[in-house]
Structure formats: structure tokens, C-alpha cells
Specification:
The chain is α/β, with parallel strands linked by helices and about 325 residues long. The chain has 13 helices and 13 strands. A seven-stranded mixed beta sheet has the order 7-6-8-9-10-12-13, sandwiched between helices. Strands 2-1-3-4-5-11 form a six-stranded parallel beta sheet, with helices on both faces.
């Protein structure tokens, strides 16, 4: 009887010892990343894939050794401060403020202690996000996508395609922080190419309807869609409008051209999202945002959709085709 009880005791003791490591692992907190974007999940599927790839390359797999909590503003920038506070109250290990300048600014305003990784198209030093690109200081670092500086270049490419058009429309969101600078640079570029440009503002669906109606009324011969997260969330709608009117349109991301837009010129946004994941992973491993330099986008893409061009009855000049990074046929 004694031997039997002793064996039972040893067996129970062994089972308990085997369970100790599991209990210890259960007590170890899995880090949580707060992911806040001014965009919407529907137009960001490919971007999330790139973000997770950056995380995985850094040793973190969502659902295994890291949790990601998502907050989406769906193009409504007024929601961002509250979304940022939610994630700060959740005590996330890293807070991402991406999908445009408004998201980045809201993340920085929400905390001075939680590490912040931002993505923004304008100068982060001028915007007050960091003290310098090489040594950001404080709790903030991220990626400068250089999106908002490219409007004059986009206008020039669009003008090369339709040099004889009487009027070019430019669609901007006045609630997007860099919009005033975008409008200024477009007006200056319009003078350079000697082509009139009408600025059309839209920050909600009703204003977008009105802006597109104004394009029709004024018989604009081409459209430039300014870089802006709200407009990105209405991507399919703008592309459908351009297709219905057979209106030559320049967009800012490759994704617009892939979805049927005529052409796009801008940075590789998927590359930027991979960097967001990589920086989040480095911070989770113990690096400080103050020591991580702000990255600047170096990969630019000029994409032409020849299928859309054919549907519009357009022929691209050989010079434009020659400099395109990608031609969709």
C-alpha cells in the first residue's frame, strides 16, 4: 500500500512539475500593439499583410507572441483623438498612428510615454512630431512617406498625357493637415505648365458628390486626386466616376491603378507598412524610439493601366510609357 501511494505521489508531483512552465508562460503578458489608422480595413488588406510581414521578420507573429488591437477612423479624422485615448488606456506596448498625418498627430498628442510609430506624408520635423530625422528624441519615430510633396510631379505627368485640355481639376480634402500646402504647390505648378487648375474640396461624402458634380459642370478635361486617407477610403467610387466619364485621372498610390485607375505616381505604401511592422518589433525587443531614425521613402512608382487607357480611347505618349515603372495590360 505504501509503495502504491508513494508511486501515486510521485506521479502527481511529476504532473505538477510539468505544469509549472505552462503556468509560468500563462503569467507572462503577451505584448499588445495599438494599430490606429485614418483609413478603413476594407481598403487596407494588402497594407496589413505588409505590416504583419514586417512584424514576422522581426520575430513577432500576430496571435502567437503579440496581439494587435485595431482602430479605424474610416476617413473621419475627428474620431482619431478618441481612438488614440482608447489604445492608451488599454496600455498598449506600442502605439501606431498611421494612415495619414492626422493619425500621427493624434497618437503623439495622446501619450508622452508609450512608444509611438507614425506614418505621415509631410515633414515630421515641421509638424512637430520629432526634433530631427536622425535623432527623433522623445517617444516617437516612424516613416516619412513624402507623399504630399509629389503633387506638382503628378500634375506634370498628367499634363503630358493631356496637354491640350482646357481645365484640370484637383480633388483635395481641406481637413487633411497638409491640404493648404498641397493646394499652394498645385497652383504654382499650374502656372509653370501654363494650365488652369481648379481646386475642389471634399472631406465627406456629400462634399465629394458636390466636387465631382462641379467637375462635370466645369467640363474639366482631367483630374488629379490629391493624397489623402479619406479619398483613399472612397477609392472605388472615384475610379468608377472617372471610368463613367472617361476622365483621365492621376492618383497617388499604385493600388488605385491596380483597381482600375488610369495611372498613379507615388511612394510604395506597402513598403512603408512593412517598415511600421519592423519598427514595432524592434521597440518590443527593447529599442527606444528616440534612437530609431525616421525613415524616408525611397521607392517611387509610376504605374500606367493600359486596359483603362484603351477603354477611355487614350494613347499614352511613348515618353511616358518609357519611364513607367509598371504597365498593366
Amino acid at each position: 500500500m505504501f509503495n502504491m501511494r508513494r508511486r501515486e505521489f510521485i506521479t502527481l508531483l511529476g504532473a505538477a512539475a510539468a505544469a509549472w512552465p505552462l503556468a509560468g508562460r500563462a503569467q507572462q503578458a503577451v505584448p499588445v500593439i495599438g494599430f490606429m489608422s485614418a483609413r478603413s480595413p476594407g481598403d487596407s488588406v494588402h497594407l496589413l499583410e505588409a505590416f504583419r510581414r514586417g512584424l514576422t521578420d522581426g520575430g513577432f507573429v500576430e496571435g502567437q507572441n503579440v496581439v494587435v488591437e485595431y482602430r479605424w477612423a474610416h476617413g473621419d479624422y475627428a474620431r482619431l483623438p478618441a481612438l488614440a485615448r482608447e489604445l492608451v488606456d488599454r496600455k498598449v506596448a506600442v502605439l501606431l498612428g498611421i494612415g495619414g498625418d492626422s493619425s500621427a498627430l493624434a497618437a503623439k498628442a495622446a501619450t508622452s510615454t508609450i512608444p509611438v510609430v507614425f506614418g505621415m506624408g509631410s515633414d515630421p520635423v515641421q509638424a512637430g512630431m520629432v526634433t530631427s530625422l536622425n535623432r527623433p528624441g522623445g517617444n516617437v519615430t516612424g516613416v516619412n512617406l513624402l507623399i504630399n510633396e509629389l503633387e506638382p510631379k503628378r500634375l506634370g505627368l498628367l499634363n503630358e498625357l493631356v496637354p491640350g485640355t482646357a481645365l484640370i481639376g484637383a480633388l483635395l480634402n481641406p481637413k487633411f493637415p497638409p491640404s493648404a500646402q498641397q493646394a499652394k504647390e498645385l497652383r504654382e505648378a499650374a502656372k509653370t505648365i501654363g494650365r488652369p487648375v481648379v481646386i475642389l474640396n471634399a472631406s465627406n461624402d456629400a462634399e465629394l458628390d458636390a466636387a465631382l458634380a462641379t467637375l462635370v459642370e466645369q467640363r474639366a478635361g482631367a483630374l488629379l486626386v490629391g493624397a489623402d486617407p479619406f479619398i483613399s477610403t472612397r477609392r472605388d467610387r472615384v475610379i468608377a466616376f472617372a471610368a463613367e466619364r472617361q476622365l483621365p485621372t492621376m492618383f497617388h498610390f499604385r493600388e488605385f491603378a491596380l483597381a482600375g485607375g488610369l495611372m498613379s505616381y507615388g511612394v510604395s505604401i506597402t513598403d512603408a507598412y512593412r517598415h511600421f511592422g519592423a519598427y514595432a518589433a524592434r521597440i518590443l525587443k527593447g529599442e527606444k524610439p528616440a534612437d530609431l531614425p525616421v525613415m524616408q521613402s525611397t521607392k517611387f512608382e509610376f504605374v500606367i493601366n493600359l486596359n483603362t487607357a484603351k477603354a477611355f480611347g487614350l494613347s499614352f505618349p511613348p515618353g511616358l510609357l518609357a519611364i513607367a515603372d509598371e504597365v498593366i495590360e
